[in-house]
Automatic annotation (TrEMBL):
Lineage: Archaea, Nitrososphaerota, Marine Group I
Tagged with keyword tRNA processing: yes
Protein name: non-specific serine/threonine protein kinase
GO molecular function: ATP binding; protein serine/threonine kinase activity
Record flagged with keyword Transferase: yes
Protein family membership: Belongs to the protein kinase superfamily. BUD32 family.
Any one Gene Ontology cellular component term annotated for this protein: EKC/KEOPS complex
SUPFAM superfamilies, per database record: Protein kinase-like (PK-like)
Catalysed reactions, semicolon-separated: L-threonyl-[protein] + ATP = O-phospho-L-threonyl-[protein] + ADP + H(+); L-seryl-[protein] + ATP = O-phospho-L-seryl-[protein] + ADP + H(+)
Domain Protein kinase span(s) in chain numbering: 1-206
Amino acid sequence: MKLIRRGAEGDIFFTTWNGQKAILKSRKKKDYRNSSLDYRLRKQRTIRESQIMSEVKEFGIHAPLIHFVDIKNCNIIMQKIDGVLVRDLPNSNLVNSCKKIGRLVGTMHKNGIAHGDLTTSNFIISKENIFIIDFGLASRTLKSDDHAVDLRLFKEILNSAHADVFERAWSNFLSGYKSSVGKERFAKITNKVMIIESRGRYARVV
Ligand SMILES: Nc1ncnc2c1ncn2[C@@H]1O[C@H](COP(=O)(O)OP(=O)(O)O)[C@@H](O)[C@H]1O
Ligand SMILES: [Mg+2]
């Protein structure tokens, strides 16, 4: 088995499952965390990731197929998605994809799922489709605050990792998001994003 990424959350290995290319995501023990808390968190995230990754498919989101879950050892084997991370796209493609990403995030929110870690490394473009991965921090929630936190994180990532196209990418994301959730909900959530941001500024000033 080949290690392809040692992530913050878990190690990612390339493997096979019934002859198909697959990914093993393994959440290893973190020594800096109290061991029973650590085990609880790893187990909880493994369960969440596998459950929510399957749930989102019911409302048309593309996500890897879960092949096998070993809760005790915090391992998930899932379909490998061949494609390019949105993070690595050339600028013009990245800007375009943000509209679709906004639409997908809106679809998840409308269906009561907040992703919890919306970064451009958690979207894979495969042929014409955008796959969403990394659901370990996802939650079932219809609360506008939780949805606003998702938007705020994505905005921050665009602003730091894709600063040169930030304005266009963010405005595309918003228009996609609005087309999914509708005008009223859009106004409510974006207002919350503004509130979160103003709190951040205030916190930095004092
Ligand atoms: N199912 C998958 N198919 C293809 N690549 C994947 C898959 N799952 C993870 N990866 C790759 O591994 C990276 C890290 O996986 P991810 O689930 O996002 O964990 P982390 O919590 O470490 O960010 C992703 O950004 C992606 O490049
Ligand atoms: Mg990730």
